[in-house]
């Protein structure tokens, strides 16, 4: 059986569906304004997907952004490979099936140890998927 490069394989468990990559600018722009978390290596943004005719309803979709400010094409591609590998190392259920994600790389993504990069990703996902508390409403009344 030939594996696609987008399949996620984790310690004997595979995600039910492959992770699709965001490619169109409008898909990236739609995610702006959703959940957001940042660290020294990347910024992660997410938003629940609105099911429309061109979107697959199954599985998460992920987009990667690495700007030219970070480096030349070799450096940018290396960072994208590291971010894809970090996503592939996640356990089942850490990415929500009906969400779209964008990882915006920072220069720290190249030099950061891979273990720290994956730990940052797990921490960021748990943060943006945490239910929002209604502290303001409780204080008022």
Q: What's this model, at a glance?
A:
With 141 residues, this protein is an alpha/beta fold.
Features:
single chain; 141 residues; alpha/beta; Ribosomal Protein S5, domain 2; five-stranded mixed beta sheet; two-stranded antiparallel sheet; 21% strand; disordered N terminus
Largest sheet: number of strands, sense, barrel closure: 5 strands, mixed
Order of helices and strands: EEEHEEEHEHHH
The radius of gyration computed from the alpha-carbon positions, rounded to a whole number of angstroms, is 16 Å
Structural class computed from helices and strand pairing: alpha/beta
Task: Please state how the strands of the largest beta sheet are arranged side by side.
Answer: 3-6-7-5-4
Mean pLDDT: 82
Got a strand count? 7
What does this structure look like?
- By secondary structure, the chain is of the alpha/beta class.
- It has one domain: Ribosomal Protein S5, domain 2.
- It contains 5 helices and 7 strands; from the N terminus they run βββαβββαβααα.
- The strands form 2 sheets. A 5-stranded mixed beta sheet has the order 3-6-7-5-4, with helices on both faces.
- Helix 2 crosses helix 4.
